[in-house]
Design a protein that fits this description.
39 strands; six-stranded parallel beta sheet; globular
Amino acid sequence: MDTLKTAIRCAAHLALVLGCAAAAAATRVDLNLDWSFVVDPDGSGEKSGWVTTAPAQAEPVRLPHTWNRAGAHHDYLGLAWYFRDLDLPKLPADATVQLNFGATFYQARVWVNGVPLGSHEGGYSAWSVDITKQVRESNRIVVAVDNRPALIAIPGFGARGDPRAWYDWWDYGGITRGAWLTISGPVRVDSQFIRAEIDSGGARVSDRVSLTSSLAGPVRGRLRATARGPDGAVVATNSLALEIRPGANEAAVSLAIAQPKLWDLDHANLYRLGIELQDGKGRVIAQHSDGFGLRALAIRDRHLLLNGTRVRLTGMTRHADSPWEGAAETSGTILHDWDDMRSLGMHLTRPVHYAPDPQVLDYADAHGILLIPEIPVWQASEAQMSNAHYQEIARQQLREMIVQIGNHPSVFAWSVANESATGTPGGIAYFRAMRDFVRDLDPTRPVTFADDNLPKLSRAEESAARDADFLMMNEYFGAWHGPREALGPALDKVDALFPDKMVIISEFGFPGIFAKSAAEAEIQRGSIFREQLPELARRDFIAGAIMWCYQDYSSRRFYWPGQEDAVFDHGVVDANRQRKSSYFVWKELNEPARIDARWTDVRDGTPAAFALTVTPNNPTQLPYVPLSGYQVLWQLLDSGNHEFGRDEFPLSAGTGALNGSVRINRPADGKPFRLRVALRRPDGSIAVLRELASP
């Protein structure tokens, strides 16, 4: 607790008075430890005084936390309470203290020292409350969270209009993405909205800065913006005079960046934009910074162009779910899974039905993965989508998602629904309203939704798809949507109905419940991949394909007969991340190039040379990514795994194809050896690997 007090004393604007090091940047204080937790099945906690006093049966927990992991509360639906004591030093009068939550599922209320300070609805966005007026030296924070679904909730009951039907992932209740304090002075920068336009002359960066003042009156000052490049060097600055009024404020500033380093799928050139607010005497009173990237994404002639170059991308979705953490994921689980998915050639994902953890956005930025984030409007009925309160929840979740993650260069587009009644008048009206709402917030990105009904349409006018910036099509031919052989005609019908629309296959794969056993499901899944990915690639208007999904996950909706709740068999790894046979099928199909190697000049059963061909994919294939900066590394390894020959060279410009023959010196011991050939990305990671054993 002494460390906590020291951190707070050094916070933000107060440091100017107290003489601490961090003069103006808001201080973040982690609150993930020292919580206690209890369920409240009969809803009596508030009447029992839990808003000020934790009951004796409360158990210690740390955040992030969900009560729905395996254990006593695995399937508990209802109200639960979290408690934490917090000791603070005496704060100067102009201090501002915010209590933040990374995410709470689903309905949450918060009290500080018995005073109700705020509430939040939703499960996948950060939110905060100002607790400045309530904090004292000794404090009690209490949070009540309720994960029960409702018809007018997002996500909620009502799939396809059935009020008993669940969404297809688990309802992990809790404080699932941690909690923290931010301590600042009376003026703070809340957020930046950074966008860039790129042309032959460079990049023009525009920034809309949101800030809040708790001062009693206006104050004149200056805003200074500083952009730093991928190497940390300052590349642009600008400043402007402004008057900061009490309450919410906005300011706009722009910068010109010459010779920009563009962000793309293999070159994660990330910039940073810092904001300083100065008072009338030139003293820095607030600081804030956010990352961004410079890239141009466009849809032209039904093709997806990144920085003017066509790409056709593949990837997979992933639920925030594991047996050991549920949705309360730690960095280790996120990093493991995303590293594994990247090893499968992923450059595109939705990434699931809800806004991802901020660590996912950072990973995608750093590794060249395009995202289409979505709010969890999942199989909503026309009645739901026409409901005014339902629409307001959708707007809230869209606003939170766009404001919180919209600066990330990995975000390609926004999705406002999945498999919902967008072929009805109410659904069409919903989409148009949400599309316009999103465009007002972020006019720079496309807006769409995932649809599983497109092949059933008679006319384009029957669906909101006509109003989307591009189509996302969920297809499960070989399962829910009909026989496998119906896929080709269905794609051709969509092409005819929407001849000007680019299409991304937003879900495909094989749900295990359509097989008699898990083993049979794996056979079906692998064959679906092998049949359907080439079928999709043959349609030039299909810019990407996203497989559902990475791992098996908990569901109240889809499981084997006779089970009341179980893990849904739909992944290329199981819930414990053990790889299935379909994992390796998907990996093979998603390699960006083909490596062919064979031994030549074989004498007495021992080769004296090898022939090597590396052929990058072309635009008729899925995936297709131009390979810029890739290297080919070959190694000869003896029976003891010792290297006795190697070379490394870049793929040539243009097609990037490589074809040649290499003489080798055979090991003197006469024992077997092997050739290893790797295609390496610009960051050194391996995109394709082949090994060839000696005869």
